[in-house]
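Thread: Newbie trying to understand structure tokens

Hi all, I'm a second-year student working on a class project, and my supervisor (Dr. K.) asked me to get a predicted structure for one chain before our next meeting. I've only ever worked with sequences, so writing a 3D structure as a token string is new to me. If someone could post the tokens and maybe explain what I'm looking at, I'd be very grateful. Here's the chain:
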Amino acid sequence: MTRIELPARPRILVIALRRLGDVLLTTPLIRSVRRAWPEARIETLVFADTAGILSGNPDLDGVVTMPPRPSAGETVSLAAGLWRRYDLAISTQPGDRPTYFALAAGRRSVAPVEDRFSGRIKRALLSRSIDYVHLSHRVEQMLRLADALGIARVGEMVAPKAEPFEGAPQGTYAVIHAAPFFRYKQWTAQGWRDLAAALSARGVAVVATGGPAEPERRYLDDVWQGANVVRLDGKLSWPQLSGLLAGARVYVGPDTSVTHLAAATGCPSVAVFGPTDPRLWGPWPAQGLDTPWQASGTIEQRGNVWLVQNPLPCMPCQLEGCERRLDSFSACLDELPASRVIEAALAALG
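---
Reply by user tm_fold:
Sure, no problem. This is what the structure looks like when written as tokens:
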């Protein structure tokens, strides 16, 4: 496709109204845009609680935020404030709200659209569009938007700019992030303790991270009871966490945003996957994903990432656990042996 025409020093907005990991996975698109228009002013529109994952991103000149659950008045007010402020607005999602903001903010607008009536209306209103492909990796979806702009793909993840912090570990250490956002993505507490013990036995200090929310802290209290780990859960900003991960010999975590961040820093990273399809959501290695992840297997490696699964016949089901709800258990994770995760972690240690 021919390169979209923009004025000299254009203003460009990239819209990503999703969760933390999704926002991080937009950074290859943002980098592609920056390389194509190095003199542009590039900003992004995200939910306020996800802005930290873009902290210090060298490809961005600004971050515009909105509440995660805005009222109708807040939505209209923000759209009015953004009205035609940008030469180009790119929605990274086919949904009504992000497409609406792209149409309002940009003199030219680009977005993915779904194959249904509302999608056909959006396609007519947008300057350019792409078909939304459900069964493709999130980063591939972003890079297809680069194709629609007529610019070169740059498949590089960009982590928050690292910041030092008091009490940072010294010497050789591993980072374990045991708590996913949802219950159905949890591995077993005993599995995490066995992994930490195996790393400690090899002279590797173990640092445990996590968020500040009280339910997560209680879960981690149970996981790490009696374990030889240094706990930093709830104590680090995203830039500090980025620096911690970049210095680790190995990282191990479930299907969550921190695992995507670890992969982006270049840290040798082990991702413990359950119901989620890695073809769509597997961590993107720091230097790009040359060979797609398989649907299921035992241990796969791509670049600086090792992906571990327990390949039951039903997986990847892409469902919310065996009981089809966010607080469900997942048999594929409950039955995943610690020995397999330890094997991958030792391989990543080299």
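A couple of things are worth pointing out once you decode it. Residues 173-349 form a domain with the Rossmann fold fold (CATH 3.40.50.2000). The CA atoms of residues 107 and 342 lie 52 Å apart. Feel free to ask follow-ups in this thread.
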